[in-house]
């Protein structure tokens, strides 16, 4: 397996991995009738707006994991509002009372919640990382994180953050082992951060 920069043409594989790890690290394929919805929310905008901060794990031409970063969270959110969400809002209706996973993601497209100010002030960059099971436990997650940290430092970022589901205890343990600490949490998300200085 090798780690390389994201290239045009990797989008479908990244979307697929996003779906296959989308249930607190487990396969979410059976939960969604539209297999692209998770990718539209959690992967697509990074590939479109911050491709230089995207890397993948590849084996024999197959993409098996990825890391996606945004060096400036507030700038990224603003660009999403201008460039990424509008066409998706035309494509997907805004559900009145979202219940199914598809409806919840459609609702997120129409009502995107920015990261908390207190978090972004100290940790202005953020990321998403997902690895298929056969890639996990082999050091590739750490290598992807180290690669992105170096990129963010070179970009002048003083810190990074991410959000993780409280149900995904394995991911929390992984991030803690890498040096991230819990900044805040509620019943929906655990916000974790790391200084890069």
TrEMBL record:
PANTHER family: O-GLCNACASE, PROTEIN O-GLCNACASE. Residues 1-197 form the N-acetyltransferase domain. This is GNAT family N-acetyltransferase. CDD domains: NAT_SF. InterPro entries: Acyl_CoA_acyltransferase (IPR016181), Glycosyl_Hydrolase_84 (IPR051822), GNAT_dom (IPR000182). Coiled coil: none annotated. PROSITE patterns: GNAT. Pfam families: Acetyltransf_1.
